[in-house]
Specification:
With 108 residues, the chain is mainly alpha-helical. The chain folds into two domains: 56 residues; 51 residues. 90% of the residues lie in helices and 0% in strands. Helix 2 packs antiparallel against helix 3. The longest helix is centred in the first third of the chain and has 55 residues. It is elongated, with a radius of gyration of 30 Å. Keywords: Membrane, Transmembrane, Transmembrane helix.
Length: 108
């Protein structure tokens, strides 16, 4: 009788500990994960809509926007040139920009 009572008490303590762990640790953690997944889902939908809008644009319009962006970046680089100590840094930046924009134009 003492043994069965000891087993029952042990079983009760283990079950109570497990239930407390689930309620106070696992549930809040799962709630946080669910909230994060919802945020991720909304962000994914936003990105998909942005991509759809980009592909819906006429290619000529997109190329014109890329060209305008290239010119803006080059003007900005010219304004920043006095801050650069070495002319090679500026030339390297321009080469990288040319490479990036040539790849962007080739993709169309």
């Amino acid at each position: 009788m003492i043994i069965t009572r000891g087993i029952s008490l042990t079983n009760f303590l283990v079950a109570s500990s497990a239930l407390g762990f689930q309620i106070f640790v696992l549930y809040p953690w799962h709630k946080q994960l669910d909230d994060d997944f919802e945020k991720l889902k909304h962000e994914h939908i936003r990105v998909l809509r942005t991509i759809e809008r980009f592909h819906a644009m006429p290619k000529e319009s997109t190329i014109a926007r890329l060209a305008a962006g290239k010119e803006t970046i080059l003007k900005l680089l010219e304004c920043v040139t006095p801050l650069l100590y070495n002319g090679a840094i500026r030339e390297g930046c321009i080469e990288v920009l040319e490479l990036v924009f040539s790849e962007a134009f080739d993709s169309f």
